[in-house]
Design goal:
One of its GO terms (molecular function) is photoreceptor activity. This is Phytochrome A-like protein. One of its GO terms (biological process) is regulation of DNA-templated transcription. The protein has five helices and seven strands; from the N terminus they run ββααββαβββαα. It is of the alpha+beta class. It has two domains: about 110 residues, Beta-Lactamase (2-Layer Sandwich), CATH 3.30.450.20; about 40 residues. The strands form two sheets. A five-stranded antiparallel beta sheet has the order 2-1-7-6-5. The protein has a two-stranded parallel ribbon with strand order 3-4.
């Protein structure tokens, strides 16, 4: 329980690491994802992808984050979300850092997922529901305001 979900790639983008915590989170065994392309086959927008991303923008952003990790000096932390093998949507913080050999040559990327606690996830869910309700009420109020602006329309309303 103390080890976070971890996955990794080699310098060509092939998935080389998928730890037990990642298997538990996604429902996908290590054998199902290792030696597949991380972008496209493991994380992608197509239905055949192991872990589907919400849209093309999320796919492009993941590619940019992975590329930045290889070329920059610092590890990067970004919000990340995907659908598991079972269809559950997971929101987390993706921490990406490059993997180096003894000579300092980049050999790939390690990715760690930081998940919110159940209490925080529940609070975020309640917040989203409250925002949707407020938006619906705001639209109804705007409609009423527009209808009563003209006195005749107000009387008919």
């Amino acid at each position: 329980p103390l080890i976070p979900p971890i996955f990794g790639t080699d310098e060509s983008g092939w998935c080389t690491e998928w730890n037990p915590a990642m298997s538990k989170l996604t429902g996908l065994k290590r054998e199902e994802v290792v030696e597949k392309m991380l972008l496209g086959e493991v994380f992608g927008t197509q239905k055949k992808s192991c872990c589907r991303l919400k849209n093309q923008e999320a796919f492009v952003n993941l590619g940019i984050v992975l590329n930045n990790a290889v070329t920059s000096q610092e590890a990067e932390k970004v919000p990340f979300g995907f659908f598991t093998g079972g269809g559950k949507y997971v929101e987390c913080l993706l921490c990406v850092s490059k993997k180096l050999d003894r000579e300092g040559v980049v050999t790939g990327v390690f990715c760690f997922l930081q998940l919110a606690s159940h209490e925080l996830q529940r609070a975020l869910h309640v917040q989203r529901l409250a925002e949707r309700t407020a938006l619906k009420r705001l639209k109804a109020l705007a409609y009423i305001k527009r209808e009563i602006r003209n006195p005749l329309s107000g009387i008919m309303f």
